[in-house]
Amino acid sequence: MVHTATKILSTRAAPGGESVDYWRHVISDAFVPLEAAAPEPSFRGEVRIDRLGSTLVSRVDAGPHRVRRTKAMISASERGYYKLGLQVRGSCLLVQDGREALLGPGDFALYDTDRPYTLAFGEPTSMAVFMFPRERLRLGAGGARQVLGQPIRGDDEPGSLLSPLFRRLVRQLGGATSPIPLADAVLDLLAALLTEQAGAAPDSLVLQAQAYIDTHLSDPDLCPDSVAAALHISTRYLQKLFAEQGTGVASWIRTRRLEQCRRDLSRPELTRPVSAVGAAWGLPDAAHFSRAFKAAYGLSPREFRAQALS
């Protein structure tokens, strides 16, 4: 989905005395199912929500409160997302997997929505929240264990590079310029820096496979078997290498094709038909391309182009 109109939800719409319960519904609908508690019955909160493709970008402004994601909630609604919380004002204590990250303004942390966590805000707070599929960062299981729940300070690397970009992305929402290119660039940089920080660089064969895939995306016959054959390894072994990075070969190929299609559809200088865009990136079946694109981005390719170029 492209950048849609900002959606604003606030406890001002809640009946008297029900603001905390209303807030629980608001944040559960916006993100993933969560519990919410506040020390004051007069709790107030507001969340501004924008969608950029598969990434949800939100700005949360609220009084002191706590949210919690439990094992029961996860088992009922596992979704495969990471969330990144950037503290803008006030402070937050994130707890996940026994790790505690105390965040101040400019600090951020990455956490997994499919593992229990708690966010505690002891004072009036403002936080920018970015939620996106785990595959977007391409962290292996080992790399994820090293970076999840760890505070990343705004005045240290990589925070000094990323924090201003995340802030700029939030500022661009609602502006005349599409924020999608910046969102893509920031998440790519986040993936690279976190991979480097975790010391979990992909296997060289995985990098070779990814490079081969990128140079053959236009080939409709590109598949795990052809990639494995090009690298002179078995398909089973190739699948194992990709699984260690948290993805699959076919999924990687599909994602890379759809990413290229999305970028072409948002370029005003490219006037080729939508079906031709899909065919150019190895998706010649127009119906299949449309279904896959909508499943990934929430809009059909035609709808995406119309909004991106409006």
TrEMBL record:
Molecular function in Gene Ontology: DNA-binding transcription factor activity; sequence-specific DNA binding
Task: Please report the stretch or stretches of sequence annotated as the HTH araC/xylS-type domain.
Answer: 207-307
Name used for this protein in its record: AraC family transcriptional regulator
Superkingdom per UniProt: Bacteria
Cross-referenced PANTHER family = ARAC SUBFAMILY (PTHR46796:SF6), HTH-TYPE TRANSCRIPTIONAL ACTIVATOR RHAS-RELATED (PTHR46796)
Among PROSITE patterns, the record links this protein to: HTH_ARAC_FAMILY_2 (PS01124)
Keywords for this protein: DNA-binding, Transcription, Transcription regulation
Source species, please? Answer: Amycolatopsis thermoflava
Which SUPFAM superfamilies does the entry mention? Homeodomain-like (SSF46689)
